[in-house]
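User: Could you go from structure to sequence for me? I need the amino acid at each position, not a summary. Structure tokens:
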């Protein structure tokens, strides 16, 4: 098991005074530590953990730790040595969950394979090599699944053009597969065809999607990056549909 290197940073003695050592509250720790982390750093929450007297400091989708006086910042992952569980990663996965039913599925391509009972959503850029690999090595062969594909254009202006051409095709799903699996480009979109490109971009930014592919499952969990079909099947099988 590989451990992330933990870095301890002493907070400056010239900053605001520490909170009291007795009966510290999460609110007072948050108030003390936020200005010490630098300009424009917003602490979303501070939460007491059940281990080592540490307090979780959540900044966006990142987790840090501090002590009860907010004097130290600990950067790294905490592991349970008895179970080898990465407690920090489990917490990150939890805070990154979404409510799947809230996704605006009308802005996605919909592909139903087999009975379609297993449901997932994928954010992909048409110029993303890893997305093409994921589609070729996993999505092409997975069965009994409904896949919602959001064309999330973050790599170049050309991504918007390709996505528009695909969205405006007579058969969007075929046009997408033709491009992602075979490199066959869709014809130019007809004049006046509207796409959800900008709305999908805003949605992805709201969900803090910084790369593609990004995969969401019915239980709200996400997997950033491409995975093989074995890993995909294992994940789908673990979710109650």
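Assistant: Here is the amino acid at each position, in order:
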């Amino acid at each position: 098991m590989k451990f992330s290197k933990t870095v301890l940073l002493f907070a400056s003695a010239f900053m605001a005074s520490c909170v009291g050592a007795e009966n510290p509250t999460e609110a007072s720790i948050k108030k003390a530590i936020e200005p010490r982390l630098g300009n424009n750093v917003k602490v979303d929450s501070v939460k007491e953990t059940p281990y080592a007297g540490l307090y979780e400091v959540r900044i966006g989708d990142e987790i840090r730790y501090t002590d009860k006086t907010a004097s130290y910042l600990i950067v790294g992952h905490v592991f349970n040595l008895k179970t080898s569980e990465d407690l920090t990663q489990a917490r990150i996965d939890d805070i990154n969950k979404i409510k799947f039913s809230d996704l605006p599925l009308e802005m996605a391509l919909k592909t139903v394979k087999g009975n379609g009972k297993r449901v997932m959503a994928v954010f992909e850029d048409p110029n993303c090599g890893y997305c093409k690999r994921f589609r070729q090595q996993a999505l092409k062969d997975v069965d009994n699944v409904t896949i919602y594909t959001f064309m999330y254009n973050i790599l170049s202006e050309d991504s918007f053009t390709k996505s528009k051409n695909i969205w405006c095709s007579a058969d969007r799903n075929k046009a997408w597969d033709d491009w992602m699996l075979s490199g066959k480009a869709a014809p130019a979109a007809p004049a006046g065809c509207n796409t959800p490109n900008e709305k999908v971009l805003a949605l992805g930014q709201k969900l803090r999607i910084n790369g593609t592919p990004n995969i969401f499952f019915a239980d709200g969990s996400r997997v950033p990056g491409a995975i093989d079909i074995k890993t995909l099947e294992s994940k789908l099988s673990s979710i109650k549909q």
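One structural detail worth keeping in mind: The helical segments are 26-33, 87-95, 129-139, 157-167, 172-182, 197-206, 229-237.
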